[in-house]
Amino acid sequence: MRGLTIVVTxxxxxxxxxxxxxxxxxxxxxGAAAIFLQLDAVALLKAPLAAPRDTDHRAAGLPDLAILLxxxxxxxxxxxxxxxxxxxxxxxxxxxxDGVSVGGPIGFLQKMDDETRLLMA
Length: 121
Prior knowledge:
With 121 residues, this protein is of the alpha/beta class. It has five helices and five strands, in the order βαβααβαβαβ.
């Protein structure tokens, strides 16, 4: 199965939620999945991890953003935060949720191969 890589570029929680759902589905099917949060998107990982529409999602029987992130990591989705994004958001690597790594765009792209699907969220 071709790998799936998703880049989230804005601080829009619903875009991150969509990326996590797709990546988790890919991992559940046995494929490799990775998400790279670039620049402003890193701020979405600030504690406490929550999204404006979490209540709506819970009311519909869906997981909130924090649970979706934890489930995705448990399925083996590789999630990394941009170093520049950490600086922009005033965060340190120690403040990231457990399991989220720190990296830059060059290292992120070096991990991709010709078979990997790349999506922008």
